[in-house]
Amino acid sequence: MISRALVEPLVSIMRLTLTNEIHYSRRNTDHHVCYELRVQETSVWCVAASVQMLLDFYRYNYLQTKIAQQLGLGTLANPNGLPYARVGDVVTQLQVMSSNVITAKILTSPTFYDFASEMDQNQPMISFIPGHSRTVAGYTESLFVLLGLAASAGFWYMIPGPPTQV
């Protein structure tokens, strides 16, 4: 039998998870998370909303209508989604709309550690899945495996949804 008094000091100094969330400043001690969710302005503008979230983080303020125009997503009255074959246009337009301050790239098969590396550099990412896009603004990773259970890892996704009908 292990005494509780022996376990508590060990547990209190052992870090069980690693978590990183995007901040405007790298001073995590006094700076709160500064990443905002944007709602799609049409039912198919998830890419425009995702681009808007990323640009807002870097303090480039663009309306979704302007982003949609830049990406060829139509208008509010006649919107289009972005075909998966045109994901590269997002990279191009992020660089254009930031005057090449943002260095964007495509990772075709990113791993957890690719995402974590970007978060550790305080850089949000856009993640594309079939038929939808969302941004990644943080992660959590279990650093401790207990009793044969697998370690776990997860992301902090900011998932734009369609506008609500009032």
Question: Strands, helices and their partners?
Answer:
Elements: H1 4-13, E1 17-21, H2 46-57, H3 64-71, H4 88-97, H5 112-120, E2 125-129, E3 132-142, E4 153-158
Antiparallel strand pairs: 1-3, 2-3, 3-4
Helix pairs in contact: 2-3
What key attributes describe this structure?
166 residues, alpha+beta, 4-stranded antiparallel β-sheet, 5 helices, 4 strands, globular, disordered N terminus
Characterization of the model:
The protein has 166 residues and is an alpha+beta fold. The chain has one domain. The chain is built from five helices and four strands, in the order αβααααβββ. Strands 1, 2, 3 and 4 form a four-stranded antiparallel beta sheet that branches. A hairpin with a 2-residue loop joins strand 2 and strand 3. Helix 2 crosses helix 3. The radius of gyration is 19 Å and the shape is globular. 22% of the residues are buried. The N terminus is likely disordered.
Summarize the model shown.
The protein has helices at 4-13, 46-57, 64-71, 88-97, 112-120; strands at residues 17-21, 125-129, 132-142, 153-158. The protein has 166 residues and is an alpha+beta fold.
What is the straight-line distance between the termini? 61 Å
Please state roughly what percent of the residues sit in beta strands, choosing from under 5%, 5-15%, 15-25%, 25-35%, 35-45% or over 45%. 15-25%
- Mean pLDDT across every amino acid position: 82
Share of helix among residues? 25-40%
Low-confidence stretches: 1-13
The number of domains is 1
DSSP strand count: 4
**C-alpha Rg, in Å?**
19 Å
Basic shape: globular
Outline the biggest β-sheet: 4 strands, antiparallel
Following the backbone from N to C, one meets helices and strands in this order, namely: HEHHHHEEE
Structural class of the secondary elements?
Answer: alpha+beta
Please report the number of helical segments. 5
